[in-house]
Design a protein that fits this description.
The chain has 193 residues and is mostly helical. It has two domains: 97 residues, no CATH class; 90 residues, no CATH class. It has nine helices and three strands, in the order αααααααβββαα. Strands 1-2-3 form a three-stranded antiparallel beta sheet. The radius of gyration is 17 Å and the shape is globular.
Length: 193
């Protein structure tokens, strides 16, 4: 299974905040039931793979409607928690398909993103330094203040630095120039003509 910090980094990219309790709850059973078997508990969306969704349609209309309904009845945080939960299961299923090399590459990429806050800001509209989340509304960029984004980022960065960076250093060193080039091109396509 992907490390918890990978799920949290995906949250940071997608929502500008981390839904740590969602991920802890989903993977709590892994302490008792190691390996893939723990996904039989608290991984409802994972269990619906090839029944309700697949990699071609990971979030079908009925799921999007459920999120929208939740947003309207319980608010945006509840809707994002469901999306974080579904995203967790989606990435777990994706992770199952990855080779060891692809897993290391993915972890290296997410660690690289954490070490490049300027990329998070220009690519994901998440400013982890000033604590802001960017949205585009009616074609205009709007920045919402989000002090918890700073706190979440600092904790996540510290945890990755303390526990994972040594293991990931080789893959980051090997690919960081490629990732930087890819992001530079995506953010400013005029660079390459």
């Amino acid at each position: 299974m992907p490390p918890g910090w990978v799920h949290e980094t995906i949250d940071l990219i997608a929502y500008g905040r981390i839904y740590r309790p969602v991920h802890q709850n989903k993977d709590a059973e892994s302490q008792r039931i190691p390996g893939l078997c723990h996904r039989q508990v608290n991984h409802e969306y994972y269990q619906k793979y090839l029944k309700d969704w697949d990699f071609n349609t990971p979030f079908p209309d009925n799921r999007k409607n459920l999120v929208q309904s939740l947003n309207e009845t319980k608010g945006p945080v509840a809707a994002e928690e469901l999306m974080a939960s579904d995203g967790h299961d989606y990435f777990d299923k994706l992770w199952d398909q990855f080779t060891k090399i692809k897993r290391d590459y993915s972890e290296g990429f997410f660690a690289w993103l954490l070490y490049n806050p300027q990329v998070l800001e220009c690519w994901a509209d998440v400013d982890v330094i000033e604590g802001r989340i960017g949205y585009t509304i009616d074609g205009q960029k709007v920045w919402e203040k989000s002090p918890e984004t700073i706190t979440d980022y600092k904790r996540l960065h510290r945890d990755v630095s303390r526990h994972h960076i040594g293991r990931l250093r080789k893959v980051i060193d090997r690919y960081s120039d490629k990732w930087a080039q890819d992001f530079l091109f995506r953010v400013n396509p005029e660079i390459n003509g």
